[in-house]
Amino acid sequence: MPQVSFEHIVKRFGGVTVLDGLDLAVEDGDFLVLLGPSGCGKTTLLNLLAGLLDVTSGRIMIGDRDVTELDPKDRGLAMVFQSYALYPTKTVEGNLRFGLSARKLPKSEADARVQWASDLLQLTPLMRRKPSELSGGQRQRVAIGRALVKHADVLLFDEPLSNLDAKLRTEMRLEIKKLHDTLKPTVVYVTHDQIEAMTMATKIAIMNGGEIQQFGTPDEVYENPQNLFVAGFIGSPAMNLTDGRFAVHDGAPNAVFPDGTRIDLSAYPFKSSPKDGDAIAVGMRPEHFELDAPGALPGHTAFDLRVRMVERTGSDALISLDFADDQLFVRAEPDRAAKTRAGETVPVHYPTAKLNLFD
Ligand code: ATP
């Protein structure tokens, strides 16, 4: 039985339908990330699960309990907000204890839980401080601690790292992941940051326009994006996508581009059966290209392409190349990029099985 399931959820605000029959389920211990651009409906979905919003129709289950009509406090959830939502007048300890105030626990049990969370999150030396005397990362740890002491079945996070600077974000990402690896709670986590999604999730639901575009493990959505939206959204730098047509040449399947460039798709693992003349888009990830192969590489498509520009970012470099009236970005080692000049022609190879074809 899934731990959290959304069953045919419809949510309307006035006349505007934001979610229109959404289905999604995750297992116990999963770390589900709801990922998508601003306005796609991910916070709405999280708030429906939390009980902060009511569904227009549909059912929300946690384990075997139908929680659709339950009060937020009766759902067995704990939530960490983007704004931390700490009480400014309470100390760290007071904030942690507040998470338990509605639960009428014996004092010894409450003490033990607060101690456990403060040890786990290294808050013990800070227990007497007020939130205004803490750094952003420390405040976020208090907010997480306040959620953990509840021993909730499901932990909800709403963009918890977006108010932190880049370095702290990386650190907190690791801490949250470590926490999940240790405690294995079921997590539903909202973000528009694909690095957070790829590094922390066991499952990602990619949303756009109130719909789930793809649901799967980080590897699945990265390696096998189901549609052009997912292909363009996941990956930084983004997947190269070039429009062309499917054509059969001498009995072999090919992708043909407007300038006549062709890719022989004989080694491509087709999942659908395009017809001669069908419009297709061909996707190639910048990091899958091979530069400097000494000759033909088995299983690869070879091109000789003219360099447009070289962009170096320090640890990494991107080379843009003319390709089929368009351009391709290829990721390269900085040393290799340093030797590359605009205007020269370079041999590049791409593993045919790693092409992504979209109709
Ligand atoms: P963001 O990353 O910007 O927070 P999101 O994916 O979380 O975006 P939601 O906040 O769920 O998106 O909003 C989804 C859509 O629903 C948006 O078009 C938004 O304008 C609309 N919406 C959200 N809350 C309300 C509301 N209370 N009344 C009317 N429309 C709303």
TrEMBL record:
Gene Ontology MF annotations: ABC-type transporter activity; ATP binding; ATP hydrolysis activity
EC number from the UniProt entry: 3.6.3.20
Protein family membership: Belongs to the ABC transporter superfamily.
Protein name in UniProt: sn-glycerol-3-phosphate import ATP-binding protein UgpC
UniProt superkingdom: Bacteria
Organism in which the protein naturally occurs: Flavimaricola marinus
PROSITE patterns the UniProt entry points to: ABC_TRANSPORTER_1, ABC_TRANSPORTER_2
Domain called ABC transporter: residue spans: 4-234
Keywords: ATP-binding, Cell membrane, Hydrolase, Membrane, Nucleotide-binding, Translocase, Transport
Pfam families registered for this protein in UniProt: ABC_tran, OB_MalK
GO CC annotation: ATP-binding cassette (ABC) transporter complex, substrate-binding subunit-containing
InterPro entries named among the record's database cross-references: AAA+_ATPase, ABC_transporter-like_ATP-bd, ABC_transporter-like_CS, ABC_transpr_MalK/UgpC-like, Mo/tungstate-bd_C_term_dom, NA-bd_OB-fold, OB_MalK-like, P-loop_NTPase
SMART domains, sorted: AAA (SM00382)
Enzyme class: hydrolase
